[in-house]
């Protein structure tokens, strides 16, 4: 009995030891389904911890992670508070109402600004194309094309996955699987760069404090030095003045150079943001010869930064110039098996295929000309 208890205790200790604390923020426009998503997390993930300490925060236990999920409101007032959470977050979940085509331009503006924020750039982002149960919902390929996501990923170096889903309760469980699959992908992406992401959210404040201290310390030292040299010969004084003048000049040149670089960086960023915000008409994406084009299969798409990855795997060479292009015609592998049964949902597994299909046959119209997948070829732009 004693041995059994000791074994249990040491196993518990070992589990605690390798558990990682992760912070994730859930954002997106108001009414996109963020709160429903968090409720779905709670329902689908058999976690022992559902902290009710703060209404916006939920704690989940999944695989080796203790995940603090912050559900932030998406109205204008709520959006003002988002930046307070950026530095803290290891990864982000961005929820899109795929059925609200009228607000897709707003989504584009918000997402572009978000991904270009220096506290967010480089962090993994899971984009959930929610409300796929609705008849006119945009598919991931439509959303990717309209948001110019491939370009955004390339320029901001944030790994990204688009997962179609539905968060409402009364749908069959298999329609909610992508939620957990997406979260697993996000956690795996965070786990691969965990130390870097942890230091990153400490670094800005720490370095600010230490650098400001250094500057002040240096200033104090200089003034005391100059006091101590008063009264020494005029020649030495001249030398010193000359030296200080030179130092001052060099410092000014350095500051000007930095201003110039900052300005250049700012201008190029503005240019990129503006380019990304240029609206592209949705009509050609959605219509062809008067027919609404709807592929029968709905699927998730992962953007990596270097090599083509398997689903759930993450890039180790962040910052490499190329990204994989999973969203081209070859990648829409219609033979890919549908996600496995519910029983496998919570097993820590790494499926073989990168593109996950999700059968939405009953939700979409038939494609009368069999041309559905043409509209998804992102290699054209
Ligand atoms: N059809 C359908 N409706 C959904 C789905 N998810 C959420 N909704 C509906 O969308 C509405 C808004 O959902 P919420 O979860 O409150 O949205 P939110 O993003 O938290 O909104 P804010 O907190 O105001 O930013 C509700 O009426 C939900 O019933 C979905 O998957 N399918
Ligand atoms: Mg909400």
Automatic annotation (TrEMBL):
Residues binding Mg(2+), per UniProt: 35
Entry-linked Gene3D superfamilies: P-loop containing nucleotide triphosphate hydrolases (3.40.50.300)
GO CC entries: cilium
Lineage: superkingdom: Eukaryota
Binding site residues for GTP: 28-35, 74, 130-133
Pfam families the record matches: Arf (PF00025)
InterPro entries for the chain: Ciliary_GTPase, P-loop_NTPase, Small_GTPase_ARF/SAR
SMART domains linked to this entry: ARF, SAR
GO MF annotation terms: GTP binding; GTPase activity; metal ion binding
Keywords noted in UniProt: GTP-binding, Magnesium, Metal-binding, Nucleotide-binding
Designated name of the protein: ADP ribosylation factor like GTPase 13A
